[in-house]
Design brief:
By secondary structure, this protein is an alpha+beta fold. The protein contains 14 helices and 15 strands. An 8-stranded mixed beta sheet has the order 6-9-10-15-14-13-12-11, sandwiched between helices. Strands 1-2-3-5-4 form a 5-stranded mixed beta barrel. The longest helix has 23 residues, at 153-175.
Length: 479
C-alpha cells in the first residue's frame, strides 16, 4: 500500500521522509553526515563531528584555521582551533575526524564554521610530496595527477554537476514515459559506418572465427539496438558509454565518452524530434540552475557570456531552427568578414569554424540545423522528398559546437536494404536491422547527445578531458 500510494501520487514524500521510511531515520542508514547536511541542517551551538580531507592549514600564534572538504559542497567548511597545538598534526591532504561546536560564520562565502575541540588524523598525508596546494592549479596539471584531481574544487564541482545532470535527464525521460534500455557495449556493427571502432580480441581459442565467431568491436552508439526496442515500446532511451578510435587531439573528442540517446516510434516529423531535444536540454539546464546552483555558479562567476547562454538555454523561447541550405547561405555571405579556412559549399560537411560562427556569432545561442545532404550522412536516415537531403538535425551551441544529432530513420524495407547493400556492408551483418522494417514497422526517429559536451557547454571549459573522471584519448589511457 505504501508503494501504491507513492506511485499514484496520493502520498508525496520528501527525500528525508523517503530515507526515514527505508532506514528508520533521516540519516542515510547510519553513515556519517556529509558537510552539506551539517551546514544546511546543523544547529548553531550544537556539538558536531565531521569527517573529510584537509584542503589547507593556516597557523598563527594564538589561533589556527583549516579548510576541510568531503566532496559534498563547493567550499567545504572552515575549522577554527583556539589552541594551535591541536593543529600541529594537520597537513594538507590528510583525512581527519573533527569534533567541535557548530557556529555561525562571519565570512561571506560560508554560513557555518566548526570551533574544534579535538582532532583525530585518520590518514596522514606527506606535505613534502602532496601535489595539491591552496594555490590555483591549471587543468593541464590536474590531468597529470588524475588519481588526486577529484580533490580540487573544479573537478569536485564538475563531478557533482555530472551527477545532477544525470538525475535531471532520467527525470525528463521518465516524465515523458521513456523506458531506459541498457544497450550493449560489445557489438558486431558500426552504427555510424565510419570504421573508427575499437576491435575486441580475446586469448587464442579453437574457434577459427575468434571468441565470438565473428568480428566484434566496442560500441560507438546504442542507436541500432534502441531501434529494436521501438518495435515494442513507443519511447526508449539509454545513457551508456561509447567508444571511438578517432586519433584526434582536440578538446572536443574522447576515445571513451557517455552518450544520451533516445528513440521514438510513431514519429514522422523532424519538428517533433526538435521539440523533444529542445525540452531535454532546457529542462536539464533548469534543473541544474535550481538544484545545483552553487556548483553552476562556480563556473558562471565573472563569466557574463556563459551566464547569458544559461539564460537562453532555460528560456521558454524556441531555439533557432534553420535548414542546412540556409546555413550555407549565411556562411557564404559571412565569408568575406569571417575569412573561413574552409569555404562553405553546399554538399560539404560543416567544419568546426562554421558551426562556431553560426552558434556563437550569428545566433549567439543554440541553433538547430536540419536537412543535410544525404551523401554526407549515415545510411539509416530517412530521405526527404527532394531526393537530395535527409530528415535530420544537429544542435549547434557555443562552446563544443555540435551538441547533439539525430534524424528520422528510414522505415522502408526495400530502400534501406538497397542502401545497405550499395555501401558494401559485410553480407548479412545488418539483416536483423533491416528486417525490423518487415514486421510491423513504424515511422520513427531518434537522437544522441554527448553527455560530456553538454557539461562542457554549461561550464565553459575548453576541453572535455576535464569533464570526464578518467579521460581516454590518443596516447593516453592512464589509471
Amino acid at each position: 500500500m505504501f508503494l501504491r500510494g507513492v506511485l499514484s501520487g496520493k502520498r508525496r514524500l520528501s527525500t528525508q521522509q523517503f530515507t526515514r521510511n527505508l532506514c528508520g531515520s533521516t540519516k542515510p542508514c547510519g553513515l556519517p553526515p556529509t558537510l552539506k547536511s551539517v551546514i544546511s541542517s546543523g544547529v548553531s551551538g550544537s556539538e558536531v563531528q565531521i569527517t573529510g580531507w584537509v584542503r589547507s592549514v593556516r597557523l598563527q600564534k594564538r589561533i589556527a584555521f583549516a579548510e576541510v572538504a568531503d566532496g559534498s559542497t563547493v567550499r567545504g567548511i572552515q575549522v577554527i582551533m583556539d589552541d594551535p597545538q591541536i593543529a600541529s598534526s594537520l597537513t594538507t591532504g590528510s583525512s581527519v575526524e573533527i569534533t567541535g561546536k557548530l557556529a555561525d560564520s562571519p565570512g561571506r562565502e560560508q554560513s557555518k564554521e566548526v570551533q574544534a575541540t579535538s582532532i583525530r588524523v585518520i590518514g596522514p598525508s606527506d606535505p613534502g610530496s602532496y601535489p595539491l596546494q591552496k594555490k590555483r592549479h591549471s587543468l593541464e596539471f590536474l590531468r597529470e595527477i588524475g588519481h588526486l584531481r577529484p580533490r580540487s574544487q573544479t573537478i569536485s564541482a564538475i563531478t557533482r554537476l555530472r551527477d545532477s545532470a544525470e538525475m535531471a535527464l532520467h527525470a525528463f525521460f521518465h516524465k515523458n514515459e521513456f523506458v531506459r534500455i541498457h544497450t550493449p557495449t560489445l557489438t558486431s556493427n558500426d552504427c555510424e559506418g565510419g570504421g573508427e571502432t575499437f576491435n575486441v580480441t580475446a586469448p587464442a581459442n579453437e574457434n577459427p572465427g575468434g571468441f565470438f565467431g565473428r568480428k566484434v568491436n566496442l560500441t560507438v552508439s546504442g542507436q541500432l539496438h534502441l531501434e529494436v526496442f521501438t518495435g515494442a515500446f513507443k519511447r526508449v532511451y539509454t545513457l551508456n558509454p561509447a567508444f571511438r578510435a578517432e586519433p584526434s587531439q582536440t578538446g572536443r573528442h574522447l576515445s571513451e565518452f557517455w552518450m544520451v540517446e533516445g528513440e521514438c516510434a510513431f514519429v514522422d516529423k523532424v519538428s517533433t524530434l526538435l521539440d523533444v531535444e529542445e525540452e531535454m536540454v532546457r529542462s536539464t539546464t533548469q534543473y541544474l540552475s535550481k538544484n545545483a546552483a552553487s556548483d553552476l555558479d562556480f563556473f558562471l562567476k565573472n563569466n557574463e557570456k556563459l551566464t547569458q547562454l544559461i539564460k537562453r538555454l532555460t528560456s521558454p523561447e524556441q531555439y533557432a531552427r534553420i535548414s542546412y541550405t540556409d546555413a550555407i547561405n549565411i556562411l557564404q555571405q559571412a565569408d568575406a568578414r569571417a575569412k573561413f579556412v574552409y569555404k562553405p559549399q553546399w554538399g560539404h560537411g560543416l567544419q568546426s569554424e562554421h558551426e562556431r560562427y553560426l552558434a556563437t556569432t550569428h545566433f549567439n545561442g543554440p541553433v538547430f540545423v536540419t536537412d543535410y545532404p544525404a551523401a554526407i550522412k549515415p545510411f539509416y536516415m530517412l530521405p526527404n522528398p527532394d531526393g537530395r537531403t535527409v530528415a535530420c538535425m544537429d544542435l549547434l551551441v557555443p562552446g563544443p559546437c555540435e551538441l547533439l544529432g539525430g534524424s528520422l530513420r528510414d522505415h522502408d524495407y526495400g530502400r534501406l536494404k538497397g542502401r545497405v547493400e550499395s555501401l558494401g556492408y559485410e553480407d548479412g551483418s545488418l539483416d536483423w536491422y533491416v528486417n525490423l522494417r518487415k514486421f510491423g514497422t513504424t515511422p520513427h526517429g531518434g537522437f544522441g547527445m554527448g553527455f560530456e559536451r553538454y557539461l562542457q557547454m554549461i561550464t565553459g571549459l575548453e576541453s572535455v578531458r576535464d569533464i570526464i573522471s578518467f579521460p581516454r584519448y590518443t596516447g593516453k589511457c592512464q589509471y
